[in-house]
Description:
The complex is a heterodimer. By secondary structure, chain A is α+β, with helices and mostly antiparallel strands. Chain A contains eleven helices and nine strands. Chain A has a five-stranded mixed β-barrel with strand order 2-3-7-5-4. A two-stranded antiparallel ribbon of chain A has the order 8-9. Chain B has helices at 5-19, 26-36, 57-66, 77-88, 91-103, 217-233, 235-238, 247-260, 266-269, 276-283, 289-317, 329-348, 364-371, 382-392, and strands at residues 108-111, 127-131, 134-145, 152-158, 169-175, 181-186, 195-205, 210-211. In chain B, helix 10 packs parallel to helix 12 (329-348). At the A-B interface, helix 7, helix 8, helix 9 and helix 11 of A face helix 11, helix 12 and helix 14 of B.
Amino acid sequence: MKFSFSEEQEEFRSFLRRFLEEKSPTTEVRRLMATDAGWEKEQWRKVNTELGLTAIAIPEEYGGQGFGLSEQCIVLEEMGRSLLCAPYFSSAVLTANAILYGASEEYKKKYLPEIASGDLTASLAFTEETGAWDISSMSMCAKKTENTYRLTGVKSFVLDGHMSDLIIVLAKVNDNSGSQRLALFSVDSTATGLTKNLLNSTDQTRKLAKLMFTDVEATCISSEDDVTEAMQTTFLKSCIGLSNEMVGGAERLREDTLEYVKMRMQFGRSIASFQVTKHKATDMLADVELAKSAAYYAAAAFDDGESDIAATASIAKASASEAYMQTAINAVQMHGGIGFTWDNDTHLWFKRAKSSEVFLGTADFHRELMMQSWDQ
Amino acid sequence: MSMNEEQVRNEVREWLKENWSPNLDLVEWRLKLADSGWGMANWPAEWYGRDLPVSLVPAIEEEFNKIGALTIPKSGIRMLAAATILNHGSDMHKEKFLKRIITGEDVWCQLFSEPGSGSDLAGATTKAVMVGNKWVVNGQKVWTTSAHKAHWGLLLARTDMDDTKHRGLSYFIIDMNQPGVETQPLMQMNGHASFNQVFLTDAEVLPDFQVGELGDGWQVATTTLMHERRAADSLRSWGQASKGDGPIYDQERVETETTMQPYKWYPQRAGRVDLIMDRAKETGAIKDPAIRQEIAKLMTLHKSAEWTARRARAAQEQGKPQGPEGSLGKLAASNVARAAAKVHTLISGADAMLTGEDSPMDGTIAEILVSFPASSIAGGTDEIQKNIISERVLNMPKETRFDADKPFKDIPRNTVS
């Protein structure tokens, strides 16, 4: 259903919300974001084992629960709401999908069950130093040796790339005919010649790494000669997932801000009684609800196999990028001075809004993608 | 009494088989509908209905549609009048008015808004004073659709200046064909005149044409307004006349055309998002990167507003309590209309300065550019919508009132009006 959730889905959501409120209060978020790793193995294992979150959208034949993107998006929305610090988006969204759509049966069987169980963390290295999200703009080229491939070059903005056990790399391969194609490679995180640098990211809850490859041994895991289409599916599915994560955060910010203005008294009256505050709160509601509609619709449209899914995914991402950031700006403004302090939690979501606005492409990038898919 | 859908369908099919004929005159046919109760089956049996639950009405209409039988046009001011009369009217009102509402012989108009009270409808200052044995009415009404053709008007007037604002109002049915009622078309900024101004100068109302008790006018008006909101929701579907050959269909087509005439520009008011892509391709504007961004912004807004409306409808259909998404439709529509007008301007370039036959699409684009502001005003301004949403959905404090507990005459009014 594109326009409503089933009773089971609603129950799952409210259970998850309570669970994450308990496991990921902002005190915990602040503790973990201050670490280099960004998350903690034991803490994450406890959360994940109880709920099987990494398994949810992986097909049953690869050790997952076989649910759709819609169900995974409920998880993501609640994680976005609670700012849970975990290697979830990197492993269970970006990398799991790249393997699911782009890897051969052998590697699906090898990696997906371990990702599903949470035993293996993985990062997808596709963006490079230009920061372009367009997969055709990759320049890294794999060199074929007798039995394996060797990678040289730089991948950047790699989510959790400094910590993951496994790195899946997207790189070009030169054909015998001289033309280039895109292929997926697996690289062990401890491989010789691989240097991993944690980047200083403004949003401390989303750790990004720069990976430098110098003649690193890599295994080609692609199922087909060219993984362009598989990567496109991975990309748009990840955009839909991120959009849902974002609307979860936006809604939490909106609710917290509303609660704050209702409590705050100035000039002998609640600041929520000022019409300018009421109208702004209504604008925030409209921004967030419309972005939620787009994010929910996109997830269900993907599960239903709708044809216009590329444009729909971009609508969801563009809508979430604008709505989350605008909500965050309004949230700081409506909190006033306290909202600009480090002690107040508003900035945690403000920064998540900023990193999410840019990650996987800004609103204008996605607007251009929409136009390309409509104007062919 | 309770009847299931299948029984009702059988019964209506039987009745239609006996009675429907495309060779009937429209009024003649509707008289049959009134007498049998099949025209307004959810109305009381003693007043041209069959006491059936409103949930069965779609099934009945479906049976009519299957064989091309005409139904009652269930919208327009006359239906608001009927709902109000059924709820609050006397038996005399029901006897005198309901049948001719069903046949469509009487045209009605609504005399609520005034130049001095728009959003604040209860601030009406048109006065009704009892002189001898008649009410004598003086004042000015505005935004009155169909007033120039109306036989009857639903009038909200002040009968007590000393009572509080809401308690000082009473509700009347006024005969529009009398010397004290003068109607003038009100031309809008888009050149259309969909509405009228009505000047009431010593216009007369007989005492038994009062609806509800003296001082209950606001309460009665609330019923009318509630039905107006529902009618607005169904406006799109009733604009279509039935397809069919025969004099009765021709008569209905003329009726629909006349009723819809004032609303001809309404699609333009909403911004005509449907034209955007074709216009952008035709003009070549689609190659302009800045315009591409604006088009995509508009489409994002338009689609997410549409999906939000669908979410609201899905919740309603499943009998779930209305979530916040259900209250945002009108605001979102204003934003879409505004954005669409902007994008149409970018696409049309210099042509956006022209109107009529000199302008793109024979004036349609020009009409969008001067009609969209109505979206954020008509039926409740954006600002009033935001007050309502913040108070009812977000539970924020209500606006401070300065007009609640004092005599109406002591409430400040427009210094120049």
